[in-house]
Amino acid sequence: MTQAFVARHIRIMLPTLALTVLLLAVFYMQPRAMSYLGLNLLLNLALPIAFATIAQMFVITVNELDLSIGAYVGFVACVGATWLRDDPLLGVAALAGGVLVYAALGALIHLRNLPSIVVTLGMSFVWLGLAILVLPTPGGKAPDWLRAVMTWKTPLLPFTIYASVALAVIVHLGLMRSAYGAVLRGVGGNPRSVERAGWSLLTAKMVMFGLAGLFGVFAGLALVGLTTSGDANIALRYTLLSIAGVILGGGEFTGGRISPIGAVIGAMTLTLAASFLSFLRLDPDWQIGAQGVILIVVLALRILINRTEARAS
Amino acid sequence: MNASLLQRLAAKPWLWAYLGALAIWLATIAFTEGRGGGDVLTAALSFATFSVIVAIGQMYVITLGPGNVDLSIPATITLAGAVSMKIMDGQDAMILPGLLIALGCGVGVGVGNYALIRLLRIPPIIATLSSSFIVLSAAISYSRGIRIKPPPMLADFTTWIVAGIPVLAVAAVVLTAIMSVVLHRTIYGRTVTALGQNARAARLAGLPVDRTRFATYVLCGAFAGLNGYLLSGFSGGAALNMGSEYLLASIAVVVIGGTSVAGGFANLPGLWGAAMLLFLLVTMLNTYGFGAGVRLVLTGLIIIGVITLAGGKRQAR
Description:
The structure holds two protein chains of two kinds. Chain A is mostly helical. Chain A has helices at residues 2-29, 36-43, 46-61, 69-81, 83-86, 88-111, 116-134, 144-150, 159-177, 179-189, 191-196, 201-227, 238-248, 260-279, 287-312. Chain A has a domain at 45-262. Chain B is mainly alpha-helical. Chain B has one domain: ABC transporter involved in vitamin B12 uptake, BtuC. Chains A and B meet through helix 7, helix 13 and helix 15 of A and helix 5, helix 11 and helix 13 of B.
């Protein structure tokens, strides 16, 4: 029985283990990080990345890929730093429009049977262009309420940690425990049988892309709340980070096999890896490379685990 | 009759790219009232050459089937450019060794990529992404920001233009033709296509799946290496960001050119149409004097438009 339990939860155990090891390594090298302030500094940029990773995960669940999420988060951040402060109604309308565009993309990709990689690649230009139109030079200012939320001094642990846990639990309940969540995952696993059971694939794709758009909005707002000012290029690296976070967290590109909790942990691991490397005082030339090595090591561990999983079942 | 219908359908995917490129070129010279039309085409051919060289490799990889894509191309271009420029050190005598070293860099990255994919079973997107981080670090560390001029002969060759036609583009057209023959007429090429259409059937039929995949990632790396070598010659030396635009370009050119993203159906002539289209698009938007924001939005919308027009029918199988 324990073996079955291990087999079932092993996917989530690896990302957790990787995060724990990294955290311990950081604490070992920099004991001062083991405080409220230290944790906050280490992890505060993890929340926007976690939102973006969850957004990417929704898209991956239905076997698609979103290469525009980074540019989109940047667009949201620019809207957040300008319109949302100066003209809240216009700002909210623009963000709602973004979510609708995402849902429409889901419909377009499904109806015309288009490769999502290319459509979202095209959209990444569109979002970047719109972001530049909204905010031609870096600047702007986040609304005060957003700033207040993101710098909220919660008791015991920093706000980021509470928010990440809440994010993971809410998405987990919605996607892994609800009836419609199972249908949505089924679209990734076996679209034909989901369709024959009477569910609309079109609706499912629109829901998942719409959710990606919504969580992209959260990511952008969280980001601009932390940085206080916007920049069109602020989040371009989120595209690759979010994909890596989903996979690191135990998700797979096809088959609707995803893990919301794992994805959030994956995003935090990637954020922490960057801090870890700066603590290592590594030659700056090799910092990016070391991030690649960390990704490879964690994924290499996964084959070992997958083998255990296969043996246990 | 059946065959002619099939032929007409098969001819469709790449036609859109050329038509789009032509329309955009006409729209550009209509704006300038015919002035500079030839120069624009020459420039488009020059720059399309580099996109096409990497896109050939990317196309082979994408044709292997769903999930296969090489994201390490930009890093490989940078590494090959930096290493070969340093080795050649501006001497004409070192042109050939430099080329071999650039190709060697590409092959090395390709071997590394496939090792990650096959031995560690990492999905290709993540494997090539991770390796690109390492390769880019190696390039940064190796070049230390010093810009070394290419050997004069290499610089002259890569920028050589005869009667408005870049010689390098002609060479690349020949290369495209060769790779087209390899894809359609050799056992290796047929195996790549077969794998993309149905990997399971290909494996059961006893095709050398691993060897073919390995060769394809190595090939893609080698083309990226070649591109890094030629591009450094063309632009007067290697730069650390020289590869970055080829990440999106390599994928976009392949798909707009009519190759199926799901794999199994490749299209080489379309690469030129798509690469010209992308360059002419940027030129047109610049000519019209749009700001950066509008330019980007229109670029994105036109890419999506072309895909929507070209893609729908093709995948209605």
